[in-house]
Design goal:
TIM Barrel; alpha/beta; about 15% strand
């Protein structure tokens, strides 16, 4: 099985030429985390490839990730950031995937002014443009799943991936279930998939995280294994890379080998158009 991680962050240290947004350092686990450090951890855990998702705490530049792809094209692809409030970015998606290694966008609506962009009109332009350009979008919009459902309905040709099963990173234990109640309602839209990423950080019980198992089953039964994408979100992970991998490979007996083939990378690569073969 060729395992592909649906979400991993890397980042360069802040410099005077490229300062981080205010408050960014409080959310980063270290001053930097390099592609080489990530690959070393991937190799130890038997992870063949990963989608690089630029973290919001370092701003909207994609330079670090484009460079990582150039250095390691067999291991990485990118879902890049795009500032929706900048009028200069309108029209860019038509050529977005011409950037080597860039397969889509990752849009966040979770904090600060960005939390209002789904309601105040700032983000309205991007959905039709992404749909027309064939650019898939990974979307982190906790507490706004109803709005994402409206977008999916209005833009049936737009491929959407909901990050972290729609949960804020601060959601814990019993608070997971109300989020999943809303999430599974979106399974009716064929153009919506979900990223099962960073889940051990949403519970307080240790590996093998028994409290997660029926919850994951509920999501897989709603969306199907071809629309549930395993991811680590390794730089905020509670536990080891091997454990978040084995949660799916060893601890969920309801998943068949075929299911795991989809969830552990096959479905993700098909969804975002990562067509080049990956060697396991």
């Amino acid at each position: 099985m060729v395992i592909t991680d649906a979400q991993a962050h890397i980042w360069d240290a802040e410099t005077p030429e490229r300062p981080w947004p205010e408050g960014g350092h409080a959310r980063a686990r270290s001053a930097s985390y390099s592609a080489e450090e990530l690959i070393a951890e991937m190799n130890r855990a038997g992870i063949a490839a990963a989608v690089l998702v630029p973290p919001s705490f370092q701003g909207d530049s994609n330079e670090t990730y484009l460079r990582a792809y150039r250095q390691y094209p067999a291991r990485f692809r990118i879902m890049g950031r795009l500032n929706l409030a900048d009028p200069a970015n309108r029209g860019r998606l038509a050529q977005w995937r011409e950037q080597p290694g860039m397969l889509g966008v990752r849009l966040t609506f979770s904090r600060g002014e960005q939390a209002q962009w789904l309601d105040d009109g700032t983000a309205d332009w991007v959905w039709a443009e992404a749909e027309a350009s064939g650019v898939p979008a990974m979307v982190f919009a906790p507490d706004l799943l109803d709005r994402v459902g409206e977008i999916a309905r209005k833009h049936p040709g737009l491929k959407l991936v909901l990050d972290h099963l729609g949960m804020r990173t601060t959601v814990r234990d019993r608070d997971i279930d109300p989020v999943l109640d809303d999430l599974v309602q979106l399974a009716r839209y064929d153009n919506v998939a979900v990223k099962a990423s960073g889940l051990p950080s949403n519970v307080t019980d240790d590996y093998p995280h028994r409290s997660l198992q029926n919850r994951i089953r509920r999501v897989v039964e709603a969306f199907g294994p071809n629309r549930v994408f395993w991811g680590s979100d390794i730089t905020r992970l509670r536990g080891s890379y091997a454990q978040v991998r084995d949660l799916f490979l060893r601890e969920l007996p309801f998943l068949t080998e075929d299911d795991l083939g989809w969830i552990m990378g096959g479905g993700l690569r098909e969804w975002i158009g990562w067509s080049e073969p990956i060697e396991g």
